[in-house]
Specification:
Length: 340
């Protein structure tokens, strides 16, 4: 910071040296003034020393306000403008007034944005609930006409609409996930089987088989949000699986006590250069662009929710060799630490 201060004060420093040089030159050229060279050097050294001390003192004084602002920046909060340091100079007082005015404007705008977000979330939640009513009626009509040959295609399209609307409902709840978070001991089978049944019409459409193993394991998690993660992963596996393929869903407990739930498909896999980006918002990859049906939200939401409820989500894939999504459930005491 000291070098920056010297750079800012370069015009004053230049003025001092020019004044000193002009004075020395005047004393040297004026024959009417008899000044010994040693005396002139002594005066120059004295003035330079005094000037350096003066610069250091002014640096400490004039940057005190900036140093206090930097300390405030390290613990910045929404009401930062109320904790501004005391000004030492008039320019500091003007800066304080500008920052306080900007802080008040920022807080007011932030409150307005929050209110608009709350209204928008409430509207989306209400719209989703209203949209679910006719979808429920449509489902009843589909179930009543299972004998019709074309009903399976209609049911598959109905499921796409239902899942999109349900996904939107979960998105609107993400901001309040902490207040909608309940840990409990859950059987993996109870989480997976419900989602498999929900997506069965897609599986029938592509004649997919689902093989399970080890789902009798008990985990500690939030059942509703865990189901949401499984749904995003499983729907992706179905989407990219080849016709007549198999999806493997397995669970096992490691030596550390952690439970690993794996969902593996026989799809085209993910290239190495795309694998680190599959959880990024909006990323669809090469296959997503070709199918033109990917939104880039499924795995992003799954990752976001898993981070918030203490599940480690990871992917293993090679191009043309399928994809494995793994959900690592922490030990019970790890969950307790997350909640605290």
């Amino acid at each position: 910071m000291f070098l920056s201060y010297l750079k800012d004060m370069r015009s004053w420093i230049l003025f001092f040296f020019l004044s000193l040089f002009s004075t020395d030159l005047l004393l040297w050229l004026d024959r009417g003034i008899n000044v010994h060279i040693n005396s002139l050097m002594y005066v120059n050294v004295f003035l330079l020393t005094f000037f350096m001390v003066f610069i250091c003192w002014r640096y400490y004084r004039e940057t005190a306000y900036i140093r206090q602002l930097e300390i405030l920046e390290e613990k910045l909060e929404t009401d930062w403008h109320e904790a501004l340091p005391e000004p030492l100079f008039e320019c500091d007082e003007r800066i304080n007034r500008v920052l306080q005015s900007a802080g008040v404007s920022f807080s007011n705008q932030l409150n307005k944005d929050r209110q608009n977000t709350i209204i928008q979330d409430d509207y989306i939640a209400a719209w989703v609930h209203e949209a679910k009513a006719p979808l429920t009626a449509m489902k009843l009509m589909i179930d009543a006409n299972k004998s019709s040959p074309s009903i399976f295609k209609i049911e598959a399209e109905w499921l796409r609409i239902f899942l999109l609307i349900d996904q939107q409902l979960y998105i609107s709840r993400l901001s309040s996930l902490e207040s909608d978070y309940v840990l409990d001991e859950v059987l993996v089978q109870d989480v997976v089987s419900v989602e498999v049944r929900e997506l069965m019409s897609w599986c029938r459409e592509k004649n997919l088989a689902i093989e399970t193993e080890g789902l009798e394991t008990v985990i500690v998690t939030d059942k509703k949000w865990c189901r949401f993660i499984v749904r995003q992963i499983l729907s992706n596996a179905i989407k990219y699986s080849p016709r007549d393929g198999i999806i493997y869903i397995t669970a096992h407990t490691e030596a550390t006590g952690h439970c690993i739930l794996s969902i593996e498909d026989e799809g085209p896999g993910i290239p190495d250069h795309d694998l680190p980006r599959i959880f990024d918002k909006g990323f669809t990859g090469g296959m997503g662009r070709l199918s033109n049906s990917a939104t880039g939200l499924g795995l992003y939401l799954a990752k976001k929710v898993s981070n918030q409820i203490g599940i480690q989500l990871s992917a293993i894939s090679k191009k043309d060799n399928g994809t494995i999504l793994k959900m690592n459930f922490s030990l019970e005491n790890d969950f307790d630490q997350i909640r605290r």
